Amino acid sequence: MASDSDRKVSPVVTRFAPSPTGYLHIGGARTALFNWLYARHHGGRTLLRIEDTDQKRSTQDAIDKIIEGLDWLGLNFDDAPVFQSDRAERHAEVAHKLLEAGHAYKCFATPEELEQMRAEQRANKQPMRYDRRWRDRSESEAPDGAPFVIRLKVPTDGETTIHDAVQGDVTVKNAEIDDYVLLRADGTPTYMLAVVVDDHDMGVTHVIRGDDHLNNAFRQLPIIRAMDEIEGGWPDPVYGHVPLIHGPDGAKMSKRHGAVGVEGYRDEEGVLPEALFNYLLRLGWGHGDREEITKSEAIELFDLDGVGKGPARFDIKKLQNLNGHYIREADDARLAKIVAARMDRQADLDLLTQAMPVLKTRAKSINELVEGAAFLFAERPLEMTDKATGLLDDEARQRLAGLSEMLHVQNDWTSEALEATTKSYAEKLELGLGKLAQPMRAALTGTTTSPGIFDVLVLLGKEESLLRIDAQASPTGTEEND
Ligand code: GLU
């Protein structure tokens, strides 16, 4: 077995090993992120293995969704993905090596026999575990040609301690680990065997995954140690079992807490990848009180000793705040493209880009940007919200008409000049600016919320602005006839 000092010089290889379920779960995304960062921080490599042995769930669509989600988050891998289902022969080969070396044995127990064993254990309130009935029996006792599974011969005395990089030392008595199945009667490998063989063959040095797999580590280690005894070159990996993500109520994160798939955060919540990256990083890993951490800072700072031992609680508000931060930081042309793709009508990218600095000041999601930008491309006659219509009473319409006259002769169509004109008109009417700005907003956007009204005028341009104002204005003195 490789000693600790050997391992320190061997380059770090991590892996993310999702089972396709139809989407990339945010817990999985965080595991992928930690593996990616750990490898990047230590100058190592990180690999992707698709655990697609459950043929029913592992559709191409489910696999594509995982790869697409990882790609969107900016997590790249250092080799093509490994597909576990391609490697069944190799898994079986290792099972046979274990068998030949006496570290595994054939079990001829029939399903009925095992069911009866379990029923007895249940009745006697014993732990439900295979009772090793074939461990010391000879194959010759089985009927000719009887089907068998191959089971691992797990040491029954002593205990195993894992020096987990996140959980610390965890010890389990070997007697508590069952002689589980490596190879089924039809010759197909079990998940437990496949993971170990794949990790070895991919040169994985660090297994970083959810702590729901900590128990599996105690079952997987005996294979590793047996193979190391048989042929050498099977060092124990370093384990890091990361606590799962919980919802705000403290229960394991599930659909009832909101989106659990990365695509839900992208498509429904309108989150930018760098915001989710930062949020998932902070969820369970800390560096002082720092909330905003860029990708390159994360690579520099990340290590497993900063991962908390307790489950992290998902807080959508924090994610939204981070998203607002990254929206303000983001390049305007890039945001314009993202927003344009989500608008329900053709959007002019140049205009959207130009509008972005004023649209993004308060937005916490792409959805808010899409909503905020809608007025730019709205067609006349504008669809009005009830609130906006409510603002346009007769008096307001008359004021708009007066303002329109002044704006028609306005040549300097800048925010400053438009503000000066509007203010002077408000002063003339002895009104606060708001009394003018509100109906202007209603007329120009059809809503009661928008960026600053002078920014709206500039973005729409003189012609469109006046057409919209005039559509709502009624000339002074004629309202009684309308
Ligand atoms: N395929 C397993 C899962 O998606 C992960 C296995 C592992 O990381 O060892 O939960």
UniProtKB/TrEMBL annotation:
Tagged with keyword Cytoplasm: yes
Hydrolase in keyword set: no
A Pfam cross-reference name: Anticodon_2
UniProt xrefs under SUPFAM superfamilies: An anticodon-binding domain of class I aminoacyl-tRNA synthetases, Nucleotidylyl transferase
GO molecular function: glutamate-tRNA ligase activity
Annotated localization: Cytoplasm
Catalyzed chemical reaction(s): tRNA(Glu) + L-glutamate + ATP = L-glutamyl-tRNA(Glu) + AMP + diphosphate
Domain Glutamyl/glutaminyl-tRNA synthetase class Ib catalytic residues, every copy: 12-320
Enzyme Commission code(s) on record: 6.1.1.17
NCBIfam families: gltX_bact
HAMAP family: Glu_tRNA_synth_type1
Function summary: Catalyzes the attachment of glutamate to tRNA(Glu) in a two-step reaction: glutamate is first activated by ATP to form Glu-AMP and then transferred to the acceptor end of tRNA(Glu).
Similarity-based family: Belongs to the class-I aminoacyl-tRNA synthetase family. Glutamate--tRNA ligase type 1 subfamily.
Protein name in the entry: Glutamate--tRNA ligase
Gene: gltX
